[in-house]
Design goal:
The complex is a heterodimer of chains A (216) and B (611).
Chain A (H helix, E strand, L loop, with lengths): L3 E8 L8 H15 L15 E2 L9 E10 L10 H6 L6 E8 L9 E9 L4 H5 L7 E6 L3 E6 L4 E8 L6 E9 L7 H12 L5 E9 L7
Parallel strand pairs in A: 3-10
Antiparallel strand pairs in A: 1-3, 1-4, 2-3, 5-9, 5-10, 6-7, 8-9
Chain B lengths: L5 H4 L24 E7 L3 H4 L3 H10 L5 E7 L3 H9 L18 E5 L6 H10 L15 E5 L15 E3 L6 H14 L4 H8 L5 E2 L4 E5 L5 E6 L7 E2 L27 E4 L1 E2 L9 H5 L4 E2 L2 H15 L3 E5 L9 H12 L5 E3 L10 H7 L7 E6 L3 H6 L6 H13 L4 E8 L6 H21 L8 E8 L16 H14 L4 E5 L2 H11 L5 H10 L13 H10 L4 H5 L14 E2 L4 H12 L30
Parallel strand pairs in B: 1-2, 1-3, 3-4, 4-5, 9-19, 10-13, 13-14, 15-16, 16-17, 17-18
Antiparallel strand pairs in B: 5-6, 7-8, 11-12
Classes of the chains: A alpha+beta (216), B alpha/beta (611).
Chain lengths: 216, 611
Amino acid sequence: MPDTIRLLFSKTGRARFISHLDLMAVFQRAFYRAGLPLRYSQGFSPRVYLSIPLPLSVGYAGLREPLDVGAEAPVPGLDALPERLNALLPEGISVLSAEMNGRSPGDIVWARYEVRFHTGAEPEAFLSLFAAPLVVEKRTKKKGAVPTDLLPMVRAFSCARSEPEDGTLCAKLELAAQNPTLNPGYITAEFERRMGLMVPAEVTRLGFLDAAGAEL
Amino acid sequence: MSHPLDLLLSRVQKPARYVGGEVGAVSLGTAPELRAAFCFPDTYEIGMSHLGLQILYGRMNQPAWMRCERAFAPWPDMEALLREHRLPLTALESGDALSAFDLLAFTLQYELSYSNVLNMLDLGGVPVRSAERGGPWPLIVAGGPCALNPEPLADFIDIFAVGDGEDVILELTALLREAKREQWDKPAILRAAARIEGLYVPALYTPAYRPDGTLEALTPSEGAPETVRRRVVSDLDQAFYPTHPVVPNTAVVHERVMLELFRGCIRGCRFCQAGHVTRPVRARSPETLARQGIEALQNTGFEEIALTSLSSSDYPELPALCDALLDYCEPRRVGLSLPSLRADSFSRELMERVQRVRKSGLTFAPEAGTPRLRDVINKNLTEADLMNACAAAFGGGWTAVKLYFMLGLPTETGEDVTAIAELAHRVFLLWRRTTPDKTRGVRVSASVSLFVPKPHTPFQWAAMESGGEFRRRIDLLKAACRKQITLNWHDPDTSYWEAVLARGDRRAGGAIYRAWQSGARLDGWGEHFRPALWQAAFEAEGLDPDFYALRERGPDEVLPWGHIDTGVSRAFLRREYEKALRGETTPDCRTQCAGCGASQYGGECGVERHA
């Protein structure tokens, strides 16, 4: 198993509009500038082994996002790395921690989200979504859009008016993170459809859980 | 949600181009005395690839009393949302509307971005016409190559900056700072600006026309000068270079450090505006360049550095500079690229050195298919030069060569057109003879642009070919091209309207306004360009666009850009035009001074300073 540096980072504010591919380039440039001894692919156009295993949708914030980057050898002094990188990263991207060879990204099963809806509606309007099977057209890689019940991919849900009241409704969701993945966009879109009007939603991914429901 | 724009961003393509927050962007501190926005009248992806933006942005953020932000033209999906929600176009750094600024500085890189200038002002909440803007703020300034014929935009722009911008822009902002403190009115500001060398204030000039529609005179008033002299930065080693450029958070056209070897050009290609309006040659020393390039790579993390100029092989210390940069780049896997190489000085050894990290395609620009026509345009390139360069490239393992040509050059015949296809084919045959490995195949492509006569060149008097004639010549060329050659060509409509605006006069402004009002946007983008809007706009103004594009000017005609003095004399340009029609060449500046007039600026004028 080659050595890998695991970073946890947050992506908030204006940076949440940076796409997954662009974010990889942003990190790569910061790694170059930090002078990290990274592992490169062989061949015509050498590339760093860089992976953000669970890409965020454009526009979503994330508070504890994992990133793996290949290193030539175990890198000493990782405690100082977050601060070093943060001086080189754009506004809104912040590295929280760095460690060698963290848990496999495959251990991630659930993702925790907070969704703020800009609406005066009561929590019950949102909670009623989960009262019966929630069947929507879900995109698949092979078969196109397929009617799918989303409830088996929802581990937990709650909703309340925001405190202090700021004109938003605050929902907390725990959704399947991979194999299959449930993007909260399906739930916000279904909420909009039932409300019959545009409900702007701010989505933040708070963190991840393993199969046992423990924080990663 | 900090900004009303945020709610729209999830609904547009590529939202990262509207939010800023990049490494290298200026941070918002205390309120400055003067707020400027550098406005690029095209998309973020184009503007952020432009070295001039990075230079002037950095330069305008040097004084502690001012701050410069950036604004770009929105894509139509974003424009529709802004208009629907009645939100203004904003600058990236603060998110404030353009109307909140003291100075909006546009760069005019291309004639077909003019409608974007008007659209950005309107979206930013700024009245489009100068005369409709009551108070002085924001003051609208424009520079860049198209400011060399400012007349078509005279109704919209308050002040044009002619030539190198990095010094004159700070002289202007110092003036504006004083004007703001002392609450000058706009006429007072304009009168004072007109006294700064290199600034042109169109409101102080009145055009008069002859019955045949040509210009009779452009008369200055209120002490404005008869001619406006181009500004030249003479010592580039001392000039500002952005070693901390803004690094985009989203993919742009060129993601690389751009290192400008020199300004000006010793060649005198007669179609080339840049080569005539940036004289004399002013070079940076290789020591300065290596230091600045390495610093910029360290500060950006880019994987590529490009050495730019109008003709990089004319930089005497090129091999030494490449070696110095490669010592840094190679171990760090940073690619070095060298666009703008001439075929007559192509060295395989140099290219192999340069391309050790990443090997790219090669591009040469013979421009014309026959030696006769190459003499007309003063390209001074022989077929033997081109073949030697290509043989060296193929022998060295290159498998892609791109050749640039122009159609519709003055005196072009059918024979010149078909000769393009034959020349490209001879390059293909050469590959078969010289390649070490035929199994890898080759890609020889010919890219054909359409000749647009530009102001301040020897061909400024020349007629352009009509769209119908261009289509006929493109068909002739297509028929002559063998299947092994990949042929690309420009759109005749696009080139025609570029030509109309390039040599337009002040009356064209009314048509630009109408075209924009009827929906002209992003005209440089094929998918958005609607030539019918422009045709209708000119007709509604009672103007014949052919008058501007297709007409040969007389030797004594008053030209709409005649009051802009680039330092290269009209007499020299006329001599060059007449020599062109006789097929006579003029040697480059290092071989023999042609007496163009640019020596008045000092500089090297072709003499090798570091030799």
